[in-house]
Amino acid sequence: MRAMGRLYLVRHGQASFGAADYDQLSALGARQCQALGEWFAGRGTVFEAVLRGTLQRHVQSLASIASGYGDAGLPDALAWPGLNEYDSAALIRTVHTGTLARPDSPEVYRAHFRLLRQALTRWTAGETRPEGMPSWADFRAGVAAALDHVRSTHAGDVLLVSSGGPIATAVHQVLGTPVEAMVEMNMHIRNSALTEFDFTPRRHRLLSFNHLPHLDHPERRDWESYA
To answer: Could you give the 3-state DSSP secondary structure of residue 172?
Structure first.
């Protein structure tokens, strides 16, 4: 039996990249999260608590996880604004003043994420303050507060549903990596991916990062996505 708690950090399912409202799960995103709920249930995981960001894709991802988890049900979720994602459009406006083309080709898609990487690098260095966004220090503090809450309040299995930015920031904080590593991790976190921390009242410890055990099935090979 484990002598410490375990925190499961889940990135939301595929959202609506390129649409007028990104903050909505796609049909694939709902399937990804439902499959994750089924995976948790199949392992007999019983959650002591659930935390989530307040964005619609967080709410909808958790609902799909709960649907797959089934009759046992999940605890009521604690909404935690510090787990919300940064505003990628506001970030990109700090390095690109023109209008971005609709991301409907691989070239435009790659250009979008090159700009986002550049903008994240400048924001985390304190060189920019995107409109309507917190500073990097405040964003980082919001994630740290959620991790501190888990350590100080719980001792069992905890589910946390958020976005790539906060999850990469959490790993950066736990490992003490350079901030540049956070940016690179953020660029590669997959939709509905699972990251695991073991924790005690004193510290978190990284157990796994960015894996998709619930999609490890021949019929789900084309379910992997990033945006």
So the answer is: helix
